[in-house]
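A favour, since you know our structure tokens better than I do. What I am after is a single protein written out in full by you. Could you add the entry underneath, on a fresh line?


***
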Amino acid sequence: MPKNKNAFSSLAARRRRAVTRAVHAGWRWVQRSGAVTAERPGRLLFGSIGTGTRLAFPQGTVFGEPWIHLGDHCIVGEQVTLTAGMMPDLDLGPEPILRIGSGVVLGRGSHVIADTAVTIGDDCYFGPHVYITSTNHSYDDPGTPVGKQWPRMEPVEIGPGCWIGTNAVILPGAKLGRNVVVAAGAVVRGQVPDHAVVAGAPARVVRSWDPDLGWQPPLRTPAPVPIPEGVTPEELLALAESAYDEDDAPAAGQSPAAGQ
């Protein structure tokens, strides 16, 4: 009897593993098939979408696509919201409302709300759950619910080469210079100069670049070692896989099942 019980348990375990593998394979197929590119835009007819740009599936809320222009080689993560205009099916005129440059990465769950002009420069990287908006509620009339008062709109501009940390908020009227770093959770309004690091709510400059003195205050950690010239992407991938295999290999004298 114990042998039969073990046999049934083993069969059930194999079936569960097979179902799990099938579900994962099916989901990968759905993700590949549902991704949006210039060649496979699906229902999302953007004003322009560049070569190599990819919107991961599932997408977040997207509307006003004719007024959204995406550059080349952008990566838009899952559940990212991209909107132009206050609601769908509006005629927003001849000019783009949301412009995203080339080489931009938008992290999973981020939102870019462009009721008026929002411009994101080339090579900007956004962590997950970043919120960018050109519109804010007004509360001038104390007798009217805030949500029913006409909002204020101001253009937003994010210069090239910026890094925006997780859960940061970029408010209407913000203008970020080149290569700005926004700390995780910061709330940014107003103008931020080139080569600055901002943090806090509201965000303030906590570090800036001086051409003569370098970063002020000085960086606390040494600069990372750059990748040697001539190293190919294939060599980097092989190196990463080698390091991964070494981390997973059992220690000397330890069986693969040890610690399970």
Observations:
- The mean pLDDT is 89.
- The helical segments are 2-34, 233-248.
